[in-house]
Structures are given as structure tokens and as C-alpha cells.
Amino acid sequence: TTFMSSEENSSLSCILPIIYGLVENLKSCCSEVSSSVSEFSKIVIAELKRRWELESLNTASCMVMACMLDPRFKQLKFLTEQQTQLVKEELYEKMDSFFQRSDSLQPVSEHQPPKKKKTEASALDVLLGEEDVSTSSVSKTEELLH
């Protein structure tokens, strides 16, 4: 609970390692405790597997891809070698398709984007004071380009 509620660590990539860790810890403690606690642990394991679809995990899911891209979990120790290989292949395919799409994009035109309409001040603008960010960032961008 502490790990997931922390602002520095909360991430989609943390979910699967934590769920698999819970399952493994519950499996290991089942043999060391009384029969009622062991039965409870088995039910919790079954429910975690059912609710998170751990038996038929989609290797192309966002959660698995997030784990693969997170340096803390990129080894995917909670998956089998075959599943890990499938995740890597899926990630390579996604990268290839991304680069193919980005190569086929047309160059950006030299025309300036239309000016944004002035919107009403939000409550946050009222509290912090209005700052015309759009014109200052446009002028800085123009200075850099020239």
C-alpha cells in the first residue's frame, strides 16, 4: 500500500510485479500456516489470478509493455521466458510501426498556426494571476528559429 500510494513510484508498470509478488508470497506461506489461513490464501490467489487474468495474460497489453519499458522491471521476472520473448517481439513490432509512420509523415509547413482565442480566466488564473504564456512562447520560438 505504501509503495503504490507514493507519488514517486506510482506507475502502471508497478501493478503486475506487485500482483505476481503477492501471489508468490501467498503460495509460499500457505504451507507454513494453519489450514484456515491456508484456505484463505488459496482463495485470494485464485481471485487475483481470475481478476487480473494472470493465466491468460495478454503480452501486448499496456501493463506488460509498461513493465518492459520500466528499468526497475524490464527483466519481467514474473513472466515465463516464452512470455518475455513475446513481449519483446511485440515491443519491437510497435517500435518498427512507429518509425515507419513517422518516416512517412509530410514535412511541417512554414505557415504560422492560427492565433488562439482568448478564453475566460479560470479559477486557477484568478488565484495565480494571468500570464500570457502563448505569446511569450511564440516569440521565444520565433527568436530561436531566426
Q: What is the CA-atom radius of gyration, in angstroms?
A: 25 Å
List unreliable stretches of 5+ residues: 130-146
**Residues in helix, %:** 55-70%
> What's the mean pLDDT score?
77
The count of β-strands is 0
Number of helices: 7
Q: What is the H/E string?
A: HHHHHHH
Residue fraction in strands: under 5%
Terminal CA distance: 52 Å
Sheet having the most strands? none
SS class: mainly alpha
Could you say which overall geometry the principal axes of the C-alpha atoms support? elongated
Protein model, in words:
The protein has 7 helices and no strands. It is mainly alpha-helical. The protein is elongated, with a radius of gyration of 25 Å. The model is unreliable at 130-146 (pLDDT under 50).
Offer a few descriptive terms.
about 150 residues
Please write out the topology.
Blueprint (H helix, E strand, L loop, with lengths): L1 H4 L9 H16 L4 H17 L10 H8 L11 H24 L18 H6 L4 H13 L1
